[in-house]
């Protein structure tokens, strides 16, 4: 049975083919086969540098993947969680996660009302361009949870000592 990751990879491959991001295409004319190469004048590069974002739980954050010379290359954004597992967030500007708290606008990922599980590394890349990767880190801070075994209410007579 296909996993969510397998389906996402299949969708990404189909998207890249439909968008024409492959650099080489073959055409058949009569009995001759030939390849036509499409080479971008300049490879894409990111305008932002790797950053660490720290937000409190419930706050919003923008993960920038601003790029120059994108051409026909399709931007892919992935989240790598604390266990090292990768989660495909978007490909070619199409959001691939179900949560309504994440929005894609051009080359930016908006995370609204951040949760603990949003923390991790966010990777911006172009699968069709060599080594064009930008990685950001998101730290979501949350208050400690304190469990007390004592009753929260103590009744003390006036003038008596309070004990624990």
TrEMBL record:
Where does the Ig-like domain start and stop, copy by copy?
44-135
Source organism per UniProt: Hirondellea gigas
- What protein name is recorded for this chain? Protein amalgam-like
Annotated signal sequence is: 1-26
Q: Where does the source fall among the domains of life?
A: Eukaryota
UniProt keyword terms in alphabetical order = Signal
- SUPFAM superfamilies, per the entry: Immunoglobulin
Matching entries from PROSITE patterns are given as: IG_LIKE (PS50835)
């Amino acid at each position: 049975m296909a996993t969510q990751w397998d389906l996402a990879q299949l969708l990404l491959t189909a998207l890249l083919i439909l968008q024409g991001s492959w650099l080489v295409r073959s055409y058949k004319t009569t009995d001759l086969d030939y390849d036509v190469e499409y080479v971008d004048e300049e490879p894409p590069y990111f305008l932002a540098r790797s950053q660490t974002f720290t937000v409190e739980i419930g706050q919003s954050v923008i993960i920038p993947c601003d790029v120059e010379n994108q051409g026909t290359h399709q931007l892919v954004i992935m989240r790598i969680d604390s266990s090292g597992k990768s989660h495909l967030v978007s490909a070619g500007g199409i959001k691939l996660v179900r949560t309504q708290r994440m929005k894609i606008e051009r080359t930016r990922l908006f995370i609204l009302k951040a949760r603990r599980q949003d923390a991790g590394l966010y990777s911006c890349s172009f699968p069709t361009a060599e080594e064009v990767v930008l990685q950001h880190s998101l730290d979501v801070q949350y208050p400690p949870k304190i469990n007390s075994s004592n009753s929260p209410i103590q009744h003390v007579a006036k003038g008596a000592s309070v004990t624990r």
